[in-house]
Amino acid sequence: MAERGPPNLPDSRAGLSPDSPRPRSRVLACVNCQQRKIKCDRKSPCANCLKHRFQCVPATQTRTRKRRFPERELLGRLRRYEELLRQNKIKFDPLHKDESSVEDDIAESRSDTETQEDQDESNGPSPYRHARSDNDHEPKPKQPTIINGFREATVKFSWDQMYASDDHIILGSPKSSVDLATLHPEPVHIFKLWQIYLEKINPLLKIIHAPTLQGRIIEAAGNTAKIEPRLEALMFGVYCMSIQTVKTETFQSMFGLSKDDLLARYQFGCQQALLNCQYLRSDNRDCLTALCFFLYSLQPNTNPRSLSSILGIALQLAQRMGIHSESFLANCSVFEAEMRRRLWWSLTVFDARLGELSGIKTSSLNPTWDCKIPMNVNDSDLWAEMKEPPVVQAGATESTFIVMRAQIADFVRSSSFHLEFFNPALKKIAKKLPNGGDVATFEKMMEDEFFKFCDEENPLHFMTIWTGRAHFSKCYLLEAYAKYIDSSTPPSQAESDALVAQAFRMLDSDTKIITSPRTAGFFWAARAYFPFPAYFHIIHDLKKRPISYHSNQAWEVMNANYEARFTCSEGYDYPLFAIFSNVILQAWEALEEVIRRSGEPLAPPKIVVTIKQRLLEMTPNAPTPSNEQSDGSLDTLLDQPPMTMPMPMEFGMGLGNEGFFSGIGGQSDFSGPDPRLFTSMQPPLTSDLNHLNWMSMFWGMRDGRGW
DNA sequence: GTGCTCGGACCTTCAAGAAA
DNA sequence: TTCTTGAAGGTCCGAGCACC
Fold first, then answer.
1. Residue A111, SS3 per DSSP
2. Residue A138, pLDDT score
């Protein structure tokens, strides 16, 4: 072989004097050149990709260096193999003589097996390895015995034999005529989608271990005909998730097909791959993660109630695997337990969100389980063979966002204001929160111990800080509603002002996230949280006090948020947009009425002008029930009292009952143009919380097609 | 002749242990 | 704390092959 010249690296030692500042990171050969094993000039795009008109995907250093194989693990492995030889009555010269405790050895060998298998998995399957049992990762009993293990395995095996194929009961039958390999994108697009996943999805979910999965994907991309089913399901899941984050207008040029077509193809692929790995009976984390991706990808185009039902199945699968329980997780390897915790928190937070969207009064976000909060560590601190948990970091890490999210969710699931709405009986078993679950105390703790380490210049940290603060504001509002819901004493003026300030902050935080170029990549997540509680609180306050010292600020804050959210929307759901708009217009009319009496001139704020304009544009063509019941004109629409407007059942159901905000900040002392609005919304409160249902729908309103 | 694949030599990086 | 070692990971040359 010819002598190789100096490596063509920008940070090549040859080109650096000892005093030269060390470059921050190596520029790696692009994915395409790496794969083809050819020289890459490391430009973007590189000469090879330019020449062949490939999409040049820069490689990232996400693979972490493996620890050296410690000797004790080698001995452990040897012990295991000796045990296997003994079990099979094969003569050999043992290194480990006479085992004193068979059970100890079995336990150890099981642990070693798990480690080894995890390692195998992290190394990536050579194109196709035997489909391993779905119970690979199943936590083992703490004191396993051969008999117990055998019985368990036998029973499971028997069930599997009796009911060979029943996975079609939810996702339909597998289509044997479809070759899944043909549904995969070109390798270069696989890497592009993976890159998008790493940049835009992974930081906010962290339910896969990127360094591990990257190796597996690179290997699988080379031969899509022979991908192990669970990895295949994961890969399709990654495609589905990544596609959602690409703007429709740029999609065609990037992938050559329409976004909808490609999404449908990959969702179908994911569905088929899930069927291939028997997802309903599988206890495998990859399989559950793929199902989770599949469900996330359905969210923008699926009725939340339908999605919530299917997510219920995923949660049931998760609980069967024991990923919600620390006693189960104690039997997993450190790595596996941590990945399972991340997955569980992701599922519960997703479930809670869908619950809000669909008005379901049960939530998996409750104190009945004890899964710990994910550790604040980087992915490089985790590896499959690790025996000891990593050191949890005090500062910001790659997991900052998911840890923040889990911290808040953990607080909420034990807080009385949350349980009051969802299941007051669970208050008895909720853990005691600092200072009685006071939101302000919790927020201060999070600011001191968490946010102060974040740097707003960093997109993930920016997202963490402002998502966190928006959630705190929502907690303040909920806390107040819980406090005053049965109280005959309304909140004081100061308390009312403080609540309005929280609503402002919630909208401000949301506006920051939506408009900041730093978080543009995270828009897919931000759009799922329309800050309706804030809008509704502000509007209610404006109806009561059309002219107050903060009314100008209220319109400004709403203007800014409305503009941020609706100028970047790809479409509107007409009935829900109409309802939202109507509520805004009612508040405006209240102010208009007061000003008109004083004879002063009044120019409508931009949000009002835009809404009227939009409604006018949408009404003639809108295929909604309103067209069937009215002439569809804007005047007719706006003349209708909001609660007589055609609307989905969920909206109607609480409105004839009780209004969520009744009882807060005084009674019906406002003088809006249409008293029917708030008279229908403000009957006296009772202890019946059904009125929360419709509020929970508003809670979930979001822009875009699904709100 | 051109272009592609991929084995494997060579190079860089960095964890881990030894030495100071 | 610094130095040394050596394994893991990254680069890309060039042999071998297919195709026109």
1. helix
2. 40
